[in-house]
């Protein structure tokens, strides 16, 4: 009962990914009192919704039932006014009024937003972009997630489709976009876990004596995570692949700095484990190529929140709903 009393006034933040779900009971200081994990069931809409409800109920029970609201971060195009999931690449949530369904079932206020917007909100309110009126978030995972704060407001666009920063073109006529996009030369084709794995494989073949080359010879799959790990361990060849990706990231950030003049650019996602080996080259490109005065002031920093940024951001959505 002590735990329940301490957790009074919690909200529940839910981060729904393409493969797994995390629900957290979170207080106003973003302390997490309980975490509920589920595999995302993607067979049909009902299964997805039941998984969300099941995890929320576990988290609610764990903190004694006293919960004020629920926030959902889902990897879909969300209509900002209605909380309807309109389009979704990895989940069967097309034209589903997620907010109203979950609110009806739980009898609680519910806020819904795109997962990248939720991560931006967590960093803006409590993390690396705290206090900024203008900020950019790039989450480098398999692909790229983007978030944007302009003039003290989270930017969602006219139809909820804004801040797709990974689809900024950095090379006209370049590589086909690996995402659900018909463009070529998008940032995501050059800067992502997927791109890192592709470049890592190319270099492993060229340099069989490197740690990457030896990993390939030993039958390991050359993934972005492996290149990040070997960079972190000091392998020069992996470090060069990462450095080159950092420069491409810098080209993308240069455009964002010129367009938005942000105080801070926050870089998160799994690839940021490489730290300065990624951000250093990016900063050098921005310092050379972005316009003044923006380039003299912008900070390019790692995200504060890692794998839980989506869940914490969803909790912030819920906290702000009940204010
Ligand atoms: Zn694209």
Report on this model:
- The protein contains eleven helices and twelve strands.
- A hairpin with a 3-residue loop joins strand 1 (10-16) and strand 2.
- The longest helix is centred in the last third of the chain and has 25 residues, at 236-260.
- The strands form three sheets. Strands 3-2-1-4-7 form a five-stranded mixed beta sheet.
- Helix 5 packs across helix 6 (211-217), helix 5 packs across helix 7 and helix 7 packs across helix 8.
- It has helices at 2-6, 45-62, 98-106, 115-126, 193-206, 211-217, 224-232, 236-260, 276-289, 294-297, 309-322; strands at 10-16, 20-26, 32-39, 67-74, 76-79, 84-88, 110-114, 135-140, 144-150, 153-154, 264-268, 299-302.
- It has 323 residues and is of the alpha/beta class.
- It binds zinc ion.
- Zinc ion (ZN) binds at residues 167, 177, 179, 181, 183, 186, 188.
Any idea what the shape is?
A: globular
Classification by helices and strands = alpha/beta
How would you write the strand order of the largest sheet? 3-2-1-4-7
Give the names of the bound compounds.
Answer: zinc ion
Features:
binds zinc ion; 323 residues; disordered N terminus; 21% strand; five-stranded mixed sheet; alpha/beta; 11 helices
Secondary structure layout:
Blueprint: H1 2-6, E1 10-16, E2 20-26, E3 32-39, H2 45-62, E4 67-74, E5 76-79, E6 84-88, H3 98-106, E7 110-114, H4 115-126, E8 135-140, E9 144-150, E10 153-154, H5 193-206, H6 211-217, H7 224-232, H8 236-260, E11 264-268, H9 276-289, H10 294-297, E12 299-302, H11 309-322
Parallel strand pairs: 1-4, 4-7, 8-11, 11-12
Antiparallel strand pairs: 1-2, 2-3, 5-6, 8-9, 9-10
Helix pairs in contact: 2-3, 4-11, 5-6, 5-7, 5-8, 7-8, 8-9
The chain binds zinc ion.
Zinc ion binds next to loops.
């Amino acid at each position: 009962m002590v735990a329940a009393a301490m957790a009074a006034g919690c909200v529940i933040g839910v981060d729904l990914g393409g493969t797994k779900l995390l629900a957290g009971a979170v207080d106003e200081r973003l302390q997490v009192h309980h975490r509920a994990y589920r595999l995302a069931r993607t067979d049909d809409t009902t299964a997805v919704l039941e998984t969300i409800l099941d995890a929320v109920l576990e988290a609610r029970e764990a903190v004694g039932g006293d919960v004020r609201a629920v926030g959902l971060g889902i990897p879909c195009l969300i209509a900002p006014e209605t909380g309807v999931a309109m389009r979704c690449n990895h989940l069967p949530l097309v034209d589903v009024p997620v907010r109203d369904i979950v609110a009806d079932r739980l009898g609680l206020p519910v806020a819904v937003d795109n997962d990248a917007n939720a991560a931006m909100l967590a960093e803006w309110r409590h993390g690396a972009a705290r206090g900024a009126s203008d900020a950019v978030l790039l989450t480098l995972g398999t692909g790229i997630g983007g978030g944007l704060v302009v003039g003290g407001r989270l930017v969602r666009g006219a139809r909820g489709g804004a801040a797709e920063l990974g689809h900024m073109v950095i090379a006209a006529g370049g590589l086909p976009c690996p995402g659900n996009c018909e463009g070529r030369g998008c940032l995501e084709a050059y800067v992502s876990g997927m791109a890192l794995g592709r470049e890592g494989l190319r270099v492993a073949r060229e340099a069989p004596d490197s740690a990457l080359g030896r990993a390939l010879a030993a039958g390991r799959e050359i993934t972005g995570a492996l290149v990040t790990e070997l960079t972190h361990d000091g392998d020069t060849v992996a470090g060069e692949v990462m450095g080159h990706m950092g420069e491409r990231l810098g080209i993308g950030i240069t455009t964002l700095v010129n367009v938005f003049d942000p105080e801070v650019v926050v870089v998160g996602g799994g690839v940021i484990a490489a730290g300065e080996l990624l951000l250093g080259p990016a900063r050098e490109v921005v310092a050379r190529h972005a316009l003044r005065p923006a380039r003299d002031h912008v900070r390019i920093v790692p995200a504060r929140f890692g794998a839980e940024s989506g869940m914490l951001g969803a909790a912030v959505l819920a906290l702000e709903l009940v204010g």
